[in-house]
Amino acid sequence: MTRGLVRKLLLRLRTRADVRRVPAHLRDDRLPVRPTAQQLRDATAAVESPHSRDADELAALLLAVDRDGDPGPVAETGQLLLRAHPRVWLMLDVAARRVWWRAPRWSAAAVQHLSRGESSPLGLTLAAFHPDGRVREAAVARLAELHDPLAVPALTLRACDWVPQVRDRARPALEHRLAEPSTAMLVAALALALGERREGRWPADRIETVFREGPVELLTAALAVPDRRTRRTAHLTALAAGFYFDLAQMLHAAEHDDDLPTRVRCAEAAVRTAAAAKTLDLVRPLLSSGTAVVRSEAVRLLAREGDIAPAVAALADRSPTVRAVAQTALRRAGSDPAEQYRRLVTASLPEPGAIAGLGETGTADDAGLILSWLDHPRPRGRAAAVRALRRLGAADPDTLSAMLTDPSGAVTRQVTIALRPWASRLGLARLRELLTADNPHHIRTAAYRLLHERDTWTRLLIDLELVVDPSPWMHDLARSDIAAWLTREAATTYSMPQGRTAEVLTKHLDDAEDALGPDQVRLLRFHLGLKPPSTEYEVDHRDMDHGFRSGRPNPD
Question: What is the pTM for the complete model shown?
Answer without folding.
Answer: 0.71
